[in-house]
Amino acid sequence: MTRPPALAFVANETETAQEAEARLKALYPSVPVEGADIIVALGGDGFMLQTLHQTEGRDVRVYGMNRGTVGFLMNAYDEDGLMERLAVAEEAVITPLAMRAGTLDGKVHHALAINEVSLLRAGPQAAKLKITVGGKLRLEELICDGALVSTPAGSTAYNYSAHGPILPIDSDVLALTPMAAFRPRRWRGALLHKSTAVRFDVLEPEKRPVMADADGRSVRNVAFVEIQSHPTMRHRILFDPGHGLEERLTQEQFV
Fold first, then answer.
1. Which helix (H) or strand (E) holds 214?
2. How far apart are CA 136 and CA 198, in angstroms?
């Protein structure tokens, strides 16, 4: 007889999420996060990303229930029938981006991003970026407010707000999207195979400072940023049948 999966409940700091965690722990047996087969995350998309980052390197599934606002990565909150929902849940596997950012003081910073890595101007003047793709110089100078590289999972987030494309969740594609590009004025970005390495070099970094951000983890005064899909890391997210990431990404394009 197959044992039921061991559950761990984690919650955002909001009162709504904390109350939900207490009720669910009273209804269902739970274990510490370290011993869980499935982690039930209670909050919004930001908390889901936080939970996924905190479980990097672990082969554990995460099932989110929305106790936040947007909830694109979350399922509807319902206290009843949780074990039955988990038994039929659909799994989406997400590969994060690895960011390597060098700063003007010579330090190198590393971070992983499930949604996107973005470069943003950090002063009053537009950023100037040089873009190298797959080891080949592709754009000598992009004058812009910033640029980002997005995974399919993150393509409906910041990338979509910057008029980037929505990507199918199972596509081996990354979106390179500029933000408020001034020159080349009509450049809208590029679609790249997920194995492609992207490098941004910041031109005039002291006059035009730039910061880099990987899912909310920021590095200021960057001189260069290298981005590539992590070759071995993966995140396993569970969704109710018919409400998985593929369906949500498709639905988003017809709103």
1. strand 210-214
2. 9
Residue 30 in this model has a pLDDT that exceeds 90: yes
Q: In angstroms, rounded to a whole number, what is the distance separating the alpha carbons of residues 18 and 100?
A: 35
**Residue 88: both structure tokens together:** 């039929």
- Given a contact cutoff of 8 angstroms between Cβ atoms, the answer to whether 61 and 85 are in contact is no
With 0.70 as the threshold, say if the pTM is over it.
Answer: yes
Q: What is the pLDDT of residues 112-161, one digit of tens each?
A: 999 999 999 999 999 999 999 999 999 999 999 999 999 998 998 899 99
Residue 72 lies in a domain: yes
Phi, psi at residue 145, to the nearest 5°?
-80, -20
Catalytic hit among 37, 45, 213, 240 = 45
Both 115 and 197 in one domain: the answer is yes
**Domain span holding position 127:** 97-229
CATH number for the domain harbouring residue 66: 3.40.50.10330
On whether both 174 and 242 belong to a single domain, the answer is no
* pLDDT in the model for residue 1: 54
Distance CA 65, CA 181 (A): 37
45 as an active site residue: the answer is: yes
- Distance CA(242)–CA(209), nearest Å, equals 45
Q: Is residue 1 part of a domain?
A: no
Structure tokens at 205: 């970094």
Number of domains comprising the chain = 2
pLDDT tens sequence across 50-97: 999 999 888 899 999 999 877 788 999 999 999 999 999 999 888 999
